[in-house]
Amino acid sequence: MRETISVSTEQAFSAPEGSVIFYYYPKLDESELACGEKALGVSGFALNWTNRIGFMDAGSDLLMLVLRRDAICDEDYKSKAHLVEAPLEPAAFLADWLLSLLKAASQQTYPYARENVDDVLADVITDRFEFLFQKSVVCETPQIAEAEKIYKKMRDRIFDGPDRPHTVRSLSRDLGVSAFDLRASCQSFSQIPLERMLTLLRLNGARRDLLRARCAPRKVSDIAMDWGFFHWSRFAFRYRSLFGETPSETLRG
């Protein structure tokens, strides 16, 4: 898959069990695929990437390939969670090759059975990336992985449903984590202060419910209050600043 992203966004990554992800991320700055996991270069392999969260910068251009883990690495890697940095020059060459395959897949017709072509391509792709993996360097799992766990628990708790407006203190009690650790984990993982992150998550929750309300009508004001926004004009301003439209425009579709 290849994905280009025009705005900064949070994304969920969940590779199938027993897989390895090759990634090529040609953005020469401090961007990260999964927060706290900075590859030394812009390409590499990620293991055990199930239910991960990453923050993608504006202008991101990401290429990812899913490979069977047992096809490219031995048993020593199967229980470890880390990144493997791929040498940039051959990785860039293979990335360009993959992009050409993606383009050809939507244009080319074959005079023989397509499944035969797919089988051959699968073997060739696996062989080339197994060789690249063998030339790559292991990066240890970063300590920030613990901060990611706390952030995910907080995020999931908020999106479970707005049974009440969430505050730093209520989340701290619900998760059994001190307010200090909650703030520190959010800041180190997302680079966004906790209070700002809570506002962003609540706005996203409100947008989700507004989209659902197109089929099951509800008032914008009720949805806003569900998510802890009690000042209508302030909510509308924040909402429009983030999504480029008013809550009422979202509801109308």
Automatic annotation (TrEMBL):
SUPFAM superfamilies: Homeodomain-like. One of its GO terms (molecular function) is DNA-binding transcription factor activity. It holds the Pfam family HTH_18. InterPro entries: Homeodomain-like_sf, HTH_AraC, HTH_AraC-typ_CS, PchR_regulatory_protein. It comes from the Bacteria. Keywords: DNA-binding, Transcription, Transcription regulation. Residues 152-253 form the HTH araC/xylS-type domain. The keyword Transferase does not apply. This is AraC family ethanolamine operon transcriptional activator.
